[in-house]
Write a structure and sequence with these properties.
The chain has one domain: Kelch-type beta propeller (Neuraminidase), CATH 2.120.10. The chain has four helices and 25 strands. The mean pLDDT is 85. It comes from Escallonia herrerae.
């Protein structure tokens, strides 16, 4: 019996070291391996080991291909070179168009949305789920339209949550529609249904790099209802409490700049830029989470020729999109550009730092 347990432990340790693609094949070897690999405890251990060792760490890229009229997901390897060709593995996204946003990742899952359809996806195992639309009975004469979507995991309840911030409006013969209020609705993957909340939040805005999951909170660009201008609206995944974070004074609105925020050095980074023939990017870092006074300007990148907008901070580089729909890497210190042979429709690029997992959307929560 002791010998049998020892062998099982050895097999488990060996399987935990394998990438997801190999584990999917191993499920077909025998019934005992299938049972082991599909256990939530094994999936949790595999996920944690990947994270601690930073294994299978890569860039998950979303882009729209005009020639085939579809959005695809691709994996860019950990070591990117200027000689890289278009990624050979392309995962077609259902219900796709060039306006899809990519939110997350969270335990290997990402949320894809064009603010009409909302799709949860684990690209490691090609698992997709299109969420049902909310079906609440709004007051007579009022209609809803999505302003912002969020996605994350609540470790206390082991639940994945999708947050929808929507505007209620009424038709108006003179103006087309008249604003009424902002509502918040939450979808739980375990219960597979939407629920209403009584949260009072400001209007949120959408543009590229404006919705970020970080530090157990989801973040949107928003109106600052207390001070006027702009702010970051955060939502805590466990407490479901909203908070507004003020921006540095340099963000007096309007100032002619576009905004974006990404994650850099385990902090939220704010990028101010004005797309042109020679674009510069001012990078500000919130060194203490949630504290407006901690915003610190790091440096300015550029001017860069025909580079339009940021996509992702990756190690010591910034992934950027050129005006012709090509990806480039900019080394932060030297500001040297490295062109990648990866193309897509203009403004269709989204990217996240990704680590693969076995978590299944169809099973609800696979994380202990």
């Amino acid at each position: 019996m002791a010998s049998t347990n020892f062998l099982e432990d050895v097999v488990t340790e060996i399987l935990l070291m394998l990438p997801v693609k190999s584990l999917l094949r191993c499920k077909s070897v025998c019934k005992s391996w299938y049972t082991l690999i599909t256990k939530p405890s094994f999936k949790t251990a595999h996920l944690k080991l990947n994270a601690s060792l930073k294994r299978n760490h890569c860039i998950l890229l979303k882009r729209f291909l005009q020639e085939s009229n579809k959005s695809v997901l691709s994996f860019l390897s950990d070591e990117i070179s200027g000689d890289d060709h278009v990624p050979p593995t392309e995962i077609t996204i259902p219900h796709s168009n060039e306006f899809l946003q990519m939110l997350g990742p969270c335990n290997g899952l990402v949320c894809l949305t064009d603010h009409c359809d909302i799709i949860l996806c684990n690209p490691s195992i090609r698992d997709f789920k299109v969420l049902p639309a909310p079906s609440f009975n709004y007051p007579k004469g009022l209609f809803s339209s999505t302003m912002g979507v969020g996605f994350g995991f609540d470790p206390l309840s082991s639940e994945y949550k999708v947050i929808r911030i929507a505007e209620l409006h009424e038709d108006d013969e003179s103006w087309g529609y008249r604003f009424h209020s902002v509502i918040v609705e939450i979808y739980n993957l375990n219960t597979k249904c939407w629920r209403e909340t009584d949260a009072i939040v400001p209007c949120v805005w959408f543009f590229p790099c404006s919705e970020v999951l970080f530090n157990g909170h989801f973040h949107w660009w928003a109106n600052d209802k207390d001070y006027g201008g702009e702010s970051i609206l955060s939502f805590h995944m466990s407490t479901e409490v909203f908070q507004e974070i003020r921006l540095p004074n340099v963000c007096a609105f309007p100032d002619g700049n576009e905004r974006g925020f990404l994650v850099l050095n385990e902090s939220i980074a704010l990028l101010l830029f004005n797309p042109s023939e020679h674009t510069s990017f001012d990078i500000w870092l919130m060194t203490e989470y949630g504290v407006a006074e901690s915003w610190t300007k790091l440096h300015t990148i550029g001017p860069l020729v025909q580079v339009e907008r940021p996509v992702l901070f990756w190690k010591h580089e910034l992934l950027l999109e050129k005006a012709n729909g090509q990806l480039v890497l900019c080394e932060l210190r030297s500001q040297r550009l490295k062109e990648l042979q990866v193309y897509g429709a203009h403004e269709s690029f989204r990217a996240v730092a990704y680590s693969e997992s076995l978590v299944s959307i169809k099973r609800g929560s696979d994380i202990n």
